[in-house]
Amino acid sequence: MAAKVAPELLKDVCGEHNLTHVKTEEKNPLPSAEDLHQEKSHLELLQNLEMFNAQQLQHIRTKERVMLPDSSMLLEEKNRERHLNNISEFLRSELRPTEPMEKLVLPDVVTIAQEKTEEELKSGIEQFNKDQLRHQKTEEKNPLPDKNAIQQEKREVNIRKSLTEFEKGNLKHVQTEEKNPLPDATVIGQEKQEVELRSKISDFDKTTLARTETQEKNPLPPPEAIEMEKKLEEHIKGIEGFKKDELKHAETQVRERLPSKEDIALEKASGDK
Q1: Residue ranges of region Disordered (predicted)?
Q2: Buried b (16+ CB within 10 A) or exposed e, 116-150
Q3: Model confidence over 166-192: pLDDT tens digits?
Q4: pTM over 0.85, yes/no
């Protein structure tokens, strides 16, 4: 008996359909005759090699011209061809973009080295034997400053802050008075010469001196001559410092009248006689 077919299927089969011609693409083509022949020959070779008796061989000098591949190389070649075929047939449209998520970030070389040193230090500290320690006197190399130094430093800090925060707009123009004038160049030069002389005198080595006979070239004057010279200097100073305005007019009185010329001539004549 013929099998019954559902009426719905019959309607779909017998009904008219608007079909379109489509080109068929052969995705998995069958191998050609040459490929089959090569595969058979290759299998025969493998069987012959497996069934070959190595004891029948004789030692002769062989010249290697063409080296046949082994089974592992053949398998690798087949896998490589399959992989290339899969890559060539792969459709990029099937790919979907995804957001990469970094789960485990590997540390760099520096952090690894630091971590190793930390682990070594920790292990050394944990394994350290306290009984090996010895008591030693501690020396204070960097002592803390006293209270006065701390207060002075605070004052300096406050002064610096006030100077940095000071506004120049609050300043006023004032006439300056020179109380301590600076010395001129000549005075500074003289002072430098004096300092150099003092340093030379202080650094002078007396051992370098040699004894010599002294010769009196300019003898000192006696004390009487010195006193006379002092009186002369005082007299000259008095004359130079004398003020004519202090003089007063006075009447002169003739006490001893001088002789006349005639009297002098007569006296000379009498003296000659």
Answers
A1: 252-273
A2: eeeeeeeeeeeeeeeeeeeeeeeeeeeeeeeeeee
A3: 777 777 777 777 777 778 888 889 999
A4: no
